[in-house]
Amino acid sequence: MSDECKRIKRAFETAESALIVSHLDPDGDSIGSMLALGRILSNLGLEADYYSEDGVPKVYRFLPWADRVCNRVAPDKSYDLVITVDASDIKRLGNKIVLSEVGKLIINIDHHPDNTNFGSINCVHLTSSTAELIYKLAKYFELKIDTEMAKCLYVALITDTGNFRYENTSKETFLMAAELIEAGISTHEISTKIYDTRTVPMIKLFAAAMGTLETSENQKAAWVTVTQEMLQKYACRSEQLVGLVDHIRSIAGVEVAMLFREEKDGVVKVNFRSKDKVNVSEIAQKFNGGGHVKASGAVFHEPIEAVKAKVIAEVLRHPS
Ligand SMILES: [Mn+2]
């Protein structure tokens, strides 16, 4: 990583303005990495702007500087640097900004195996999380990791490793976590904020969604469906439901779990999880989506029943 670090360092030192961009449907890693990187830049004397087309999910709004994240860029505004975090492809950034128009130099920092290296500088490594790369950058710059930065990095780390349960968890991940704890964070307080702040309607919606559980004949694929009608009944947003798919994967024998979410304006989102044998990144890519081998997603503009039919047919083509 040192070669890219050198180039990134030069870019950070010469830039006078920077925009950090997260991906659509941002998760803990993209928001945490974005905010931690902002603190690195700030330490270097560069105050960045932050862009996320889908804003910041409520659960991550306690993070320091989350209130600085905007979902628009002023027209004609252009930055010396645009840094994308946790996004494998330009399409994942949304369609309201055109990278080549808003930035002179694009730095792509990501850990997805299907990253398209769309940046002028690509810092792409298969680490546990993008946050692990941001952490390494902070080290490279010899910056002190303060409590605020540690909070952002820790949220990214636990959400992308499923609380240190997924295969991407390594010795480095734990060493990094140890250092974040040394920086003064309370892991209990953060976990509570991330995992223990669900509302009663949300749990009722979970129950309703669980009630839709279906499986393939051999029970190796299982899925649940959340319609607009269900979301409206419980006044929840579909982003609050992503964790549901992990429960579906937790069924013994299930190799592929799916969550079908009906959004507004005819959009349907599908989240995939796999246990051991199926590469769900490949399946998502068939539908112009992407992600990791064991966690991926895709977006559709078709009725939910049609989406389900073709996605399930595709999944069943993959031996598990
Ligand atoms: Mn990530």
TrEMBL record:
Name the record gives this protein: Uncharacterized protein
GO MF annotation, one: nucleic acid binding
Top-level taxon: Bacteria
A Pfam family of this chain: DHHA1
Ranges for domain DDH: 19-156
InterPro entries registered for this protein in UniProt: DDH_dom (IPR001667), DHH_sf (IPR038763), DHHA1_dom (IPR003156), Oligoribo/pAp-PDE_c-di-AMP_PDE (IPR051319)
DHHA1 domain: residues covered: 236-305
Organism listed in the record: Candidatus Saganbacteria bacterium CG08_land_8_20_14_0_20_45_16
